[in-house]
């Protein structure tokens, strides 16, 4: 999709579809900002079929002009306008757009500008939401309906001075959305087609395209690195584990170093503590943390952000087998700590323990891990927020803010000492399950045993990584959650740092 910004009279564009946002405050007066177009809208407004309320839209056909369709989108009251209402309105717009073939799309930027929402926010949201909304995972079947993204997206603005901001914000939106769709492709790929080795190959390809350094440890090298946790979980599968290391080096002196760790369980059957069959197929998404960190490092590289990022992914398949890890087994993690395996289905924390220990090598200023870690998190927060825990309140506050801005909200849960007491082992240093009570937090407490003094935050994305029913303009399947959140976090970090000095 080619992004164009121009300053011109709104009715003079030559497009298949023109989108204009309408606040309910304006519906009785100048609806579109153009007399000719106002005439086109007069009947639908007079019939009160369109009142400018949130969630409303009207599709009108324009005769005589170079515009085929005019799509009016209700924005609600001006006083309630915000980035989150904008995002929802644009999502409604994309739902409407998906029904028609639009090669050339124009959007009136000024019709969406109000309060804290400027031209940049509008451009970025439109590009991001459109690119995400038109996504389908269709590579495996011809019968899946494909939506063609418009070839051209023209932002029409009033002030010449807005053009630069619209162009750069549009570009940012495009990079972030493409990285999110990249993560969704990885998530949606079935377990037989995305084994640990194949995930590693995808990381290698990404490294070439996005100019990243890439190193992949094979089973022998994982053994040499003393990653007893990764090896133990992988034992039950014929597919050997991989440990993926991707690095983005900004080349800036004194750049902050961020380590991102993503759970890469390409399929989670539960192992010997096998899961019930119902919806077990969803466990191909158990590598969503890995997809998020790969997507985020791709976006950071394409945005050339002045931060150094290392992405670490322990990749395994969790299956039951004659050789599999068993409840009661005691294993030794890379850190030297012994782990008593209570439940082989609590495998994510075991492999993340080794990855978090490995992260120390890079002396990061911040470590953030993402994992579809606990079913309990889905019970606690549902599908509308990612669980957040950690030891560094500064990072957690920054994640919360980035979550509000990006639309990928997070919610903090406590991580008190009491939860650490719940996972003290009887036969080893720690046990990998503290039972059902506070399951999300005891899982985080387990990880906290391996981060030591590193400033750390943990994101449990079990409820947000995929949806099993289309929502807004988003199709069923992987959501790529984490990519927008992490990229926004890093954008904020470099902008704040830049504005201080
Ligand atoms: N991958 C699952 C967590 C999960 C469950 C994510 C459902 C999304 C939806 C994880 O490996 C797991 O099985 N966790 C167990 C932990 C328990 C055995 C302590 C769980 O949540 O039941
Ligand atoms: Mn599991
Ligand atoms: Zn799992």
Kindly describe this structure.
The longest helix is centred in the middle third of the chain and has 26 residues, at 163-188. The protein is elongated. It has two domains: 2-158, 3-Layer(aba) Sandwich (Leucine Aminopeptidase, subunit E, domain 1), CATH 3.40.220; 179-500, 3-Layer(aba) Sandwich (Aminopeptidase). The protein contains 14 helices and 20 strands. It has 501 residues and is α/β, with parallel strands linked by helices. Helix 3 packs parallel to helix 4. Helix content is 35%, strand content 21%. The strands form four sheets. Strands 7, 8, 9, 10, 11, 14, 15, 16 and 18 form a nine-stranded mixed beta sheet that branches. A six-stranded mixed beta sheet has the order 1-6-5-2-4-3, with helices on both faces. The mean pLDDT is 97. The chain binds ligand BES, manganese (II) ion and zinc ion. The site of ligand BES has 16 residues, from helix 10. The site of manganese (II) ion (MN) has 4 residues, from loops.
């Amino acid at each position: 999709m080619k992004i164009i910004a121009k300053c011109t009279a709104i009715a003079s564009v030559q497009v298949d579809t023109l989108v204009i946002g309408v606040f309910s405050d304006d519906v009785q007066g100048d609806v579109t900002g153009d007399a000719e177009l106002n005439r086109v809208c007069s009947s639908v407004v007079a019939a009160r079929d369109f009142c400018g309320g949130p969630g409303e839209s009207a599709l009108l056909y324009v005769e005589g002009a170079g515009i085929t369709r005019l799509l009016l989108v209700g924005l609600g009251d001006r006083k309630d306008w915000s980035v989150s209402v904008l995002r929802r309105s644009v999502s409604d717009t994309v739902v409407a757009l998906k029904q028609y073939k639009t090669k050339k799309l124009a959007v009136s930027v000024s019709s969406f500008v109000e309060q804290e929402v400027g031209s940049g926010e509008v451009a970025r949201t439109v590009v991001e939401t459109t690119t995400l909304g038109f996504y389908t995972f269709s590579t495996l079947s011809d019968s899946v309906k494909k939506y063609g993204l418009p070839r051209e997206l023209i932002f029409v603005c009033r002030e010449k001075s807005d053009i630069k901001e619209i162009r750069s914000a549009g570009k940012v939106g495009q990079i972030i959305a493409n990285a999110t769709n990249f993560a969704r492709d990885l998530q949606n790929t079935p377990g037989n087609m995305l084994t640990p080795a194949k995930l590693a190959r995808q990381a290698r390809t990404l490294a070439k395209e996005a100019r990243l350094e890439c190193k992949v440890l094979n089973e022998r090298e994982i053994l040499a690195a003393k990653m007893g946790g990764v090896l133990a979980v992988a034992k039950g599968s014929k597919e050997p584990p991989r440990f993926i290391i991707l690095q983005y080096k900004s080349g800036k002196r004194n750049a902050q170093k961020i380590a991102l760790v993503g759970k890469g369980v390409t399929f989670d059957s539960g192992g010997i503590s096998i899961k019930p069959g119902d919806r077990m197929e969803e466990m191909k998404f158990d590598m969503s943390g890995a997809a998020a960190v790969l997507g985020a490092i791709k976006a950071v590289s394409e945005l050339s952000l002045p931060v150094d990022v290392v992405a670490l992914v322990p990749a395994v398949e969790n299956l039951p087998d004659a050789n599999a890890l068993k409840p009661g087994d005691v294993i030794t993690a890379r850190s030297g700590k012994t782990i008593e395996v209570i439940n082989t289905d609590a495998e994510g924390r075991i492999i993340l323990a080794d990855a978090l220990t490995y992260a120390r090598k890079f002396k990061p200023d911040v470590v953030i891990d993402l994992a579809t870690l606990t079913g309990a998190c889905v019970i606690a927060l549902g599908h509308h927020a990612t669980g957040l825990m950690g030891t560094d309140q500064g990072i957690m506050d920054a994640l919360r803010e980035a979550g509000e801005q990006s639309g990928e909200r997070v919610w903090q849960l406590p991580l008190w000492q009491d939860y650490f007491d719940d996972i003290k082992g009887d036969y080893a240093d720690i046990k990998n399950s503290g039972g059902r009570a506070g399951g999300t937090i005891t899982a985080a407490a387990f990880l906290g045993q391996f981060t030591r003094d590193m400033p750390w935050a943990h994101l449990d994305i079990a409820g947000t990584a995929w949806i099993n029913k289309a929502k807004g303009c988003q199709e069923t399947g992987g959501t790529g959650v984490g990519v927008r959140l992490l990229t926004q976090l890093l954008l904020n970090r470099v902008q704040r740092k830049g504005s201080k000095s």
